[in-house]
């Protein structure tokens, strides 16, 4: 009985997240209420509050579902014992771009984050969460770049902190622009070209040197 109850709870949580994704995509985050999500999911508002404290928590849970497939490559590039940290980072970014281009769910969630999520007063918790996530992402990229420098895959005088911020901004820019105007290019087939361009920036830009 306990196992069945746990399974039912997980199923309800999944229903809520699927409904939230649909509602956020169609209406935007600010215009979607928890009541809207409950109606679409076929559950009560109480069921939503049992799983999530507020709308920001729903959005964050939806975003968290995207990170797991890329974690193994990310950890590899951050490992000081990894012989090819830049290669791992390259694979991670190619996979990221191609996943967004070909996986409808991943594309929808990223489109919500980039173009349909307003940081209103109601979403202060989410803003703090995104701030923390962005800082953590910069730290992890910097670690990967530092490992690549030690393996002589990047210039020894590269500024890893500034370069991590620049690469993060470049990645967000490629994704955000393609989601807004996908007809401009085929992100899936050109994923490696875009990743190479970003890494070439690190290798060749004098402005990113110490």
What is the 3D shape? elongated
Question: What's the Cα radius of gyration?
Answer: 19 Å
- The proportion of residues in beta strands is under 5%
Mean pLDDT: 91
Q: Structural class of the secondary structure composition?
A: mainly alpha
- Report on the biggest sheet: none
Q: Give the proportion of residues in helices.
A: over 70%
List unreliable stretches of 5+ residues: none
The end-to-end distance, rounded to whole angstroms, is: 62 Å
- The tally of helices reads 10
Number of strands: 0
Order of helix and strand elements from N to C terminus: HHHHHHHHHH
Briefly characterize the structure.
The chain has 210 residues and is mainly α. It is 72% helix and 0% strand. It is elongated and about 55 Å long.
What does this structure look like?
The chain has about 210 residues and is an all-alpha fold. The protein has ten helices and no strands. α6 packs across α7 (about 105-115). The longest helix is centred in the middle third of the chain and has 27 residues, at about 125-150. The chain is elongated and about 55 Å long.
How are the SSEs ordered, and which strands pair?
Blueprint: H1 2-27, H2 34-41, H3 45-51, H4 55-64, H5 71-78, H6 85-102, H7 104-115, H8 124-150, H9 160-180, H10 191-204
Keywords:
mainly alpha; about 210 residues; 10 helices
């Amino acid at each position: 009985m306990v196992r069945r109850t746990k399974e039912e709870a997980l199923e309800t949580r999944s229903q809520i997240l699927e409904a939230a994704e649909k509602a956020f995509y169609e209406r935007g985050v600010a215009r979607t209420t928890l009541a809207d999500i409950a109606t679409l999911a076929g559950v009560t508002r109480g069921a939503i509050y049992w799983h999530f404290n507020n709308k920001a928590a729903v959005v964050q849970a939806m975003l968290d579902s995207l990170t797991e497939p890329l974690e193994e490559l990310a950890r590899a590039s951050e490992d000081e014992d990894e012989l090819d940290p830049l290669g791992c980072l390259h694979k991670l970014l190619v996979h990221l771009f191609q996943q967004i281009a070909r996986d409808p769910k991943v594309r929808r969630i990223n489109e919500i984050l980039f173009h349909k999520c307003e940081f209103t007063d109601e979403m202060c918790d989410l803003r703090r969460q995104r701030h923390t996530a962005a800082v953590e992402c910069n730290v992890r990229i910097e670690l990967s770049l530092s490992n690549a420098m030690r393996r002589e895959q990047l210039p020894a005088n590269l500024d890893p902190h500034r370069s991590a911020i620049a690469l993060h901004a470049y990645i967000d820019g490629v994704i955000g622009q393609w989601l807004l105007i996908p007809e401009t290019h085929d992100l899936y087939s050109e994923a490696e070209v875009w990743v190479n361009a970003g890494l070439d920036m690190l290798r060749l830009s004098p402005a990113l040197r110490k």
